[in-house]
Input
Amino acid sequence: MSERKILSHEFYKHNTLKVAKELLGKYLVRKVGRKKIIGQIIETEAYCGPKDLACHGSRGRTPRTEALFGQAGQWYVYFIYGMYYCLNVVTEKKDYPSAALIRAVKPIYGINGSEKTDGPGKLCRTFKIDKKLNNSSACSSFSSPLRRGRLGGGLLWIEDWGEKIKPSQIKKTPRIGVDYAKEYKNKPWRFILKFRI
DNA sequence: TTATCGATGGTA
DNA sequence: ACCATCGATAAA
Output
């Protein structure tokens, strides 16, 4: 049995396409109160900097996208379509707007059968992710502010459980919902983990 | 099965 | 007006 390691800043600061692919098979861990929710990441998308017209950062720095311009390894959570949140983890250099969108996980622990995890909005609903997590760190399980005189547990992070994913297990497709992105709309920057080849 | 459409509200 | 979505409904 392999050790479970929290992914570090080092993991996230590389090329966004690489990070988005390497996130497949890792484990998204959410702590809410004393309960844990865990899902294995099976679908991601890469948003690759200021030139990528699908990336929120391509329209410049705004209050909403501030976290996207921050340090690798922090969460970028935004509100969309009036009722959903989307979860991204920031990649590459500070001030370079790039991130990996986590689109789907496979339920592993603490998830009711009726709760869906197969879409960015549904995943955030099930994992109780909203803007309160925006700009917080994904690199520690002890990153939250002091509460009642002691460290609160971390709230949301990603673990490597030592599984190796082969390139042949990764399906690539264009990203969802970015028809407006001109020459970037058909870039195969959506990555899906296949369990059957 | 695929296609279409309304809900809903922050953002620029 | 637009939107990195979802779920219901209709059509086929």
User: Anything to note?
Assistant: The longest strand of chain A covers residues 35-48. Chain A has a mean pLDDT of 93.
